[in-house]
Design goal:
Chain A: It comes from Shinella pollutisoli. The complex is a heterodimer. Helix content of chain A is 79%, strand content 0%. By secondary structure, chain A is mainly alpha-helical. The chains are: A mainly alpha, B alpha+beta.
């Protein structure tokens, strides 16, 4: 065996191992969801769509899914203006304490989720709003905001500072400069960031767990609650629906702006 | 204009008649770009006033000034097509929307980009992007066109092509233009008039040929062209002729500086192309000054050879000499003894 073929073999082994490890959970859940039996197993015990039928009937799962969508929508709606403005400001303008602000905005990553979750539980509890959906949306936004800001700064820092001057020179007053030049130029970053925020909020479990009550459970919490009683294949089916939603968002992202901008974000 | 405690532009008063092409030439940090940004309205002068068409404009924000600008890095809008870029100033300046498409078309034709309007900016070559930037700066018929070294990033061939293009368009439209560059060749080629700047101060304002032939001080003489300086002391002034001695060798030149008097330290400036070169025992007829030296280095530049000659009689001054003669190219090598000669009328004497 020559050096280059052994290198190829080793490389492919690594790639195969990585692919298997990354996709195994999804494949297992996907397989288990199509089972015809009554317990969750992999490989599935016969093939059927009956558990998909079951989740379509289960109003608690459906409502939990709807609540998750609402939470994700609230999170994204808040993140778009806040993250866009913060991202542009950090990338383009000489903000005082820019460095400190950047570190401050990264804090949500460094604090364990359980810690920030408890903190927010206390705050929202004090306000008497626990059990409603909007605090969950806000909380998801707070903990994931760095993703949004990263996506926007990645677009904005590629922007030449001359662009706004050029727009001014073309006769555009300040607001028009922002609307016609700066905003469109960072739009790919905004789209990337908001889809990311949407997926992350849709999937958020730990913080939701601390902030919801029986009337306002989101889908991940609902699934978790169900696991604690009986594990039935409908959970695998709803997980697949869940994964499909996230997949859809990624596909949308790729279609709209291309994944490379996200992969390049700093 | 003061940034912190740095005076970027100190004394820079000049006026520019309508329709002229002016180049502000200077090394980086000379204040030329700051001057341009003040004219465009991006920076506000800390002192003094700028007038356009006789109106003071210091308080006028950039988007209300009728000035077109081509930026150093072009600053084309990447999310727009070439035509949308050119249409942008017309939209922002509220031109009649029905007339915009044909105006855009006309200016794209002017910069020889007819048919390229639908292209995105990143689908255009460097030279084509330049042309879009020019069209965008001119389409609304500004009172003044500013060029902030837009050619600096181009390769030499394209740069020289675009220089002539700028000149052609400027003459065709008759738009008053201020160009900023550190490229002396560009300044000489494109301009009706040159301002040489250094240290935030105007050193000379003159036609290109005068700035080259009669530099007003040592900085200008050094910055434009390849110039030899010979340090000495003034012995006699008979304006415009000045006699001086360098290391005991009597030399002479011309000076417009009335402050020059006998006994002053001075420097004689001599263009490399004004010096004739011959072999060590050769004859240089009709030249007033002849000195001997030896070749230190010879640099082949294609159309000419540059010799570096050390002259012991002038305190080992290193002189650069051009040889354009294709017959005699590379006739001397390092170490060869040579003889240099020049005329006093080609030497400019400055205070030191």
């Amino acid at each position: 065996m020559t050096d280059s073929t052994s290198k190829t073999v080793v490389l492919w082994l690594f790639v195969a191992a990585a692919l298997v490890t990354l996709s195994a959970p999804t494949i297992v859940v996907l397989g288990a969801s199509f089972t015809a039996g009554n317990i969750i197993t992999f490989p599935p015990d016969g093939l059927s769509l009956k558990w998909y039928g079951a989740i379509a009937q289960a109003s608690d799962l459906r409502q939990a899914f709807l609540r998750s969508l609402i939470v994700a929508a609230i999170c994204t709606a808040v993140a778009i203006p806040v993250g866009t403005l913060a991202g542009i400001a950090l990338a383009k303008y000489r903000v005082r304490f820019a460095r400190s602000i950047q570190i401050y905005l990264l804090l949500p990553f460094t604090i364990p989720l359980i810690g920030s979750g408890i903190g927010m539980m206390l705050v929202f509890g004090e306000m008497g709003v626990l059990g409603r959906l909007w605090p969950v949306g806000i909380a998801c936004c707070v903990i994931n905001l760095p993703f949004m800001i990263w996506a926007v700064t990645a677009s904005a820092s590629n922007l030449s500072p001359d662009l706004e001057l050029a727009a001014a020179n073309c006769g555009a007053p300040p607001l028009q400069r922002f609307l016609y030049i700066t905003l469109p130029a960072v739009l790919p970053g905004v789209i990337t960031g908001s889809l990311l925020m949407f997926i992350l909020a849709l999937n958020e479990f730990l913080v939701s767990l601390l902030l919801v009550d029986a009337r306002s459970v989101t889908l991940p919490v609902q699934i978790y609650n169900s696991i604690r009683s009986i594990i039935t294949p409908d959970l695998a089916a709803i997980s697949v629906v869940f994964i499909a939603c996230a997949g859809l968002a990624i596909a949308l992202l790729d279609r709209l702006v291309g994944l490379d901008i996200f992969l390049k974000s700093k | 204009m003061v940034f912190g405690n740095v005076h970027a532009v100190r004394a820079a008063s000049f006026d520019l008649p309508r329709g002229r092409f002016l180049t502000i030439l200077g090394p980086s940090g000379s204040g030329k770009t700051t001057l341009l940004r003040m004219i465009a309205g991006f920076d506000r002068p800390t002192g003094g006033e700028i007038f356009i068409n006789g109106e003071p404009v210091n308080a006028v924000p950039p988007h209300r000034r009728a000035i077109g600008m081509v930026f150093q890095k072009l600053a084309l809008f990447p999310h727009m097509t070439a035509a949308e870029n050119v249409a942008f100033p017309l939209k922002m300046r509220r031109h009649d929307a029905r007339l915009i498409p044909q105006k855009v078309e006309r200016y794209l034709d002017l910069v020889r980009l007819g048919g390229y309007g639908g292209r995105r900016i990143n689908e255009l070559s460097g030279g084509q992007q330049q042309r879009v930037a020019i069209a965008r700066a001119l389409v609304f018929e500004p009172d003044l066109l500013l060029l902030d070294e837009p050619l600096a990033a181009l390769d030499r061939k394209l740069r020289e092509e675009m220089q002539l293009e700028f000149r052609r368009i400027q003459k065709e439209l008759g738009v008053t233009t201020i160009n900023v560059t550190h490229d002396q060749r560009e300044a000489l080629v494109v301009s009706d008039e040159i301002i040489v700047m250094d240290g935030g101060t105007i050193q000379q304002k003159a036609r290109p040929v005068d700035a080259y032939r009669a530099p007003s001080n040592a900085f200008v003489a050094n910055f434009i062209g390849v110039t030899n300086f010979i340090a000495g002391r003034v012995t006699e002034v008979a304006a415009p002729r000045v006699a001086f001695e360098a290391n005991g060798v009597p030399l002479a030149g011309l000076s417009a500086d009335a402050a020059l008097v006998a006994g002053m330290p001075c420097a004689g400036a001599l263009r490399a192309e004004q010096v004739r070169i011959a072999a060590g025992n050769g004859r240089l007829d009709g030249l007033e000054t002849v000195v001997d030296g030896h070749v230190v280095d010879c640099i082949f530049e294609g159309e000419r050879v540059v010799y570096e000659i050390r002259v012991p009689a002038l305190a080992d001054t290193l002189m650069r000499v051009f040889d354009h003669d294709p017959e005699s190219h590379l006739q001397f090598g390092p170490g060869d003894a040579v003889r240099l000669g020049w005329n006093a009328r080609d030497m400019h004497v400055f205070q030191k």
